[in-house]
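Q: I'm building a small set of examples for a reading group on sequence design. Run inverse folding on the following structure and report the sequence directly after it, with nothing in between.
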């Protein structure tokens, strides 16, 4: 049995050798095989050389679209210059290192060649217009592979937690436990974030815009410029989003309003805040407007025991555009709550809205805002939402149980005064016309 098997193997090898060494009409099969093998090596070497050439920074910036835009931005970041002298080049971050994913990425990049040929982003203006799309595509890719390119250099297992701040330790340890994608928290680490209108267009679509009437109260939907009169183009400051005003007069697309609030008696007193001792910005006036007795009327002064600062209770009478006003703040707060929930939960668990007081939230929010992309209106709205729903305005207990939820202790008289002011304005303006 074994002898027959050995004879079979020998016979097979002999026939194979005869086949390979037998002269063909022109060349033998063995020569063809050898030449094919050598050609395969040459082809693979050439292919791999070309592939690696496309993975160089020089190749990436050979197109002016990259050289004049994102490459310039990279040079101002820690990935370009740092204390360790390690530099991340374009392919380090944008091309997968393992072969299979690398080939898939190269095939995907063929669309970019097409865009270059047809000048899709061949000017700065075109590039900026498409930046959000380009960035979103990369963010989606990084999220899908859990920032594999980042983790070729950075490893959760190699991080020295003791060298981090307590807050960074908490966030990074949580991310490590989830093997979280780096891009969730570090968008904009190497290139500028897209400049977009953020969620403002969505805000306008969910808030009911009102046509203002004299004597009624309205909330500002978007930040608005202030004017000294109904016709001037010179601005007198800015009205913050979600600020409540009382309309006192109307004229040619503008409204005159009265704003009741508090300001600190330091400098020109340009910042008008919501309430005594609480830094919720309602408006910011120019120096000239803040010092004008016709604009700002001081009703009383009170010293803040906590800071020793003197605060002035004031009313402000100015003009603004009649657009983007709403008679209810509900839509604004609902929008802000959704934005806070969706935008501020990717890096870490959100603090409860009532976890901090109104004066603590600005510092906390400023530390968070660097990791998200919000336009100025959305930032101010979310911050104001957090402040108005903070522990300062939480539902009271004990002796204050009869106070309305959402009003700070000591706010009753302020709100009563504002109602009185609104009533006086309504009475004095009953004969006003558009």
């Amino acid at each position: 049995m074994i002898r027959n098997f050995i004879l079979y193997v020998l016979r097979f090898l002999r026939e194979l050798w005869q086949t390979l060494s037998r002269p063909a009409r022109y060349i033998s099969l063995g020569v063809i095989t050898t030449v094919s093998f050598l050609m395969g090596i040459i082809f693979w070497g050439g292919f791999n050389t070309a592939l690696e050439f496309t993975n160089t920074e020089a190749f990436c910036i050979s197109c002016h679209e990259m050289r004049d835009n994102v490459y310039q931005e990279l040079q101002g970041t820690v990935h370009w210059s740092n204390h360790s002298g390690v530099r991340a080049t374009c392919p380090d971050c944008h091309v997968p290192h393992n072969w299979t994913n690398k080939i898939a990425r190269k095939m995907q990049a063929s669309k970019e060649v097409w865009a270059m040929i047809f000048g899709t982003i061949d000017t700065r203006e075109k590039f900026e217009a498409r930046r959000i799309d380009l960035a979103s595509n990369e963010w989606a890719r990084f999220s899908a592979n859990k920032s594999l390119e980042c983790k070729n250099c950075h490893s959760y297992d190699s991080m020295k937690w003791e060298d981090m701040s307590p807050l960074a330790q908490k966030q990074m340890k949580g991310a490590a436990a989830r093997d979280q994608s780096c891009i969730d928290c570090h968008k904009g680490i190497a290139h500028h974030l897209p400049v977009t209108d953020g969620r403002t267009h969505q805000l306008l679509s969910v808030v009911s815009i009102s046509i203002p009437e004299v004597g009624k109260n309205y909330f500002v939907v978007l930040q608005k410029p202030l004017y000294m009169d109904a016709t001037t183009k010179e601005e007198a400051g800015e009205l913050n989003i979600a600020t409540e005003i009382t309309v006192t007069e109307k004229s040619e697309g503008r409204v005159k309003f009265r704003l009741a609030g508090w300001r600190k008696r330091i400098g020109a007193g340009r910042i008008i805040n919501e309430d005594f001792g609480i830094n919720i910005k309602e408006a910011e006036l120019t120096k000239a407007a803040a010092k004008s007795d016709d604009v700002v009327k001081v009703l009383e002064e009170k010293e803040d025991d906590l800071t020793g600062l003197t605060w002035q209770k004031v009313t402000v009478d100015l003009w603004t555009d009649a657009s983007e006003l709403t008679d209810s703040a509900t839509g604004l707060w609902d929008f802000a709550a959704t934005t806070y929930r969706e935008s501020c939960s990717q890096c870490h668990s959100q603090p409860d809205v009532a976890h901090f007081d109104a004066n603590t939230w600005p510092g906390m929010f400023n530390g968070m805002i660097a990791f998200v992309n919000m336009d100025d209106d959305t930032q101010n709205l979310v911050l104001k939402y957090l402040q108005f729903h903070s522990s300062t305005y939480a539902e009271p207990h004990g002796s204050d149980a009869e106070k309305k939820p959402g009003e700070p202790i000591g706010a009753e008289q302020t709100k009563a005064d504002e109602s009185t002011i609104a009533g006086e304005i309504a009475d004095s303006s009953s004969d006003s016309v558009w």
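The first strand starts at residue 217 and ends at 220.
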